[in-house]
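CATEGORY: protein folding

GOAL: derive structure tokens
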Amino acid sequence: MSTRALSMHFYGCHTKDYLYRRLLFLNRQRYLSTYKCPHSSKMLWGIGKGGFDKIKESLPMLSGNGFRSEAPRHDYIASTIQIGPWISTNNPTVEFFTEQELRHIHPDDYPNWVSKDISHRSDGLWRFPLTNKGLVFALEVELGRQTPERYRNIAKYYDANQTIARVFWAVRSNRQAERIHNFIKEEVGNGARFHNFLTVEDYFKKGWLSTLTLGHEAGRTMSDLVGLKKNELTPISDQNCIFDLSKCPTKSGNYKLMTLKDVCL
């Protein structure tokens, strides 16, 4: 996460200098590691080896010893979409399971609402209290260009996992959305209606009030689809703070906002 995102979660939108000093200390002790965007001073924080070793014994059964992000920019976008609306609020009615948890926790220790089928891993899962059992939504962040076969396999995965009610795709452009949607429709036919698309650029501006541009619920917002009201979400102005990737926002003077170029290089 970014310095400002961590500050938003613990203290509100205005970054505290002592938080930044604490992050530097944890980094020196190797509890945290840093990830820098190429050709810029924008930076993200992640868990370091010391931090992983410290908490490993308290974690569920793991499928391996990995802990570092393999694609930090992609994973940051996935994280901001998954937890962005609740970055400064506590909403115990919404449950989360991240891509990192899907990747590193052994399937036997998954929550009972998460599929143990590991032939594909979503970029994040939510369970919303829309029914007695809750409805599960999946996230797919697609910033590059994959083969048609990959998209067809993803389509088959979701078609077989009926416990997942909807899939949100965050993509670079509407053209990319149409390409992916066509492959999904070719593979699963009417099952493509469960896949809804939005652009990352629109999400940067509107957060969960972004309009879905393609899919059965096109024209609706993300928040409307999952039954969230505006007063249940972190305000958009505060959500936007998490896209400030300044190493130390209290000293930088200017926002260093994440852009589409940062995540699609």
